[in-house]
Description:
The protein is mainly α. It contains 12 helices and no strands. Helix 2 (27-36) packs antiparallel against helix 3 and helix 9 (172-183) crosses helix 10 (188-212).
Amino acid sequence: MTFIAGILLFIAAMLGGTLNSVAGGGSFITVPSLIFSGVPAIQSNTTSTVALWPGSIASISAYRRELAKLNRVVVLTLGITSLFGGIFGAILLLSTSQSTFLYLLPYLMLVATLLFAFSPRITALLRKQSASAQYTQGMQEKGAVNSWRTLAVISFIQLIIAIYGGYFGGGIGIMILASLGVMGMENIHEMNGLKTVLQTSINGVAVITFIIAGAVFWLQALVMIVGAIIGGYGGAYFARKLDPRLIRSFVILVGISMTIYFFLHSFKVI
């Protein structure tokens, strides 16, 4: 890694950490930056996951009150499902060839960009449901689901989301929120708390898998971890002063641009 590449990766991680703390979509910046710096595509994804994961851990503490209200069986079941799915997705990624991943990357970027672009509408629907509906008696007490059958179905959906999250991860936040809405949860704050735990768990086991497999470019990762932490805790202060719509538009623009670029690049690979 050259000095200039290190500076660019540091800036990319700082920007990615800032975006993750205020809007999401940080991987739209970090993954392409690593690829452009010469890191192979798969290792760019693994290194990006490692670099951005520490910033997500701290956000769990912000939802301590909401998490305390949730049914422990639900949290434990979905948590275990997320761990297994995250590991499987990470192993699946490591089993993919570089050319295949480069071919799949634009489609993954497209899915993540669309999920990010339409996430306000999905969240608005969930908030509307939260405001207009009431919990059942069991949910009022512990945030429980209506039946074991519902929990089994949602666990399967969460497993699929977790596999995708371990493999790539873009957009899994809104996927989890949508599945929790299907499950019957109505309090958006509790949903966000559980989403944060599940998302951090998925990325956490993926990080461990990537480290054990030796699939992380550590020099780049360490530079980006520092940048992501600064961006997450410092850059977010200034980003919050901007119009959120501008930030979201910027992320969507980057996502669309990177999607188009990798689509064109995948044709060259073929």
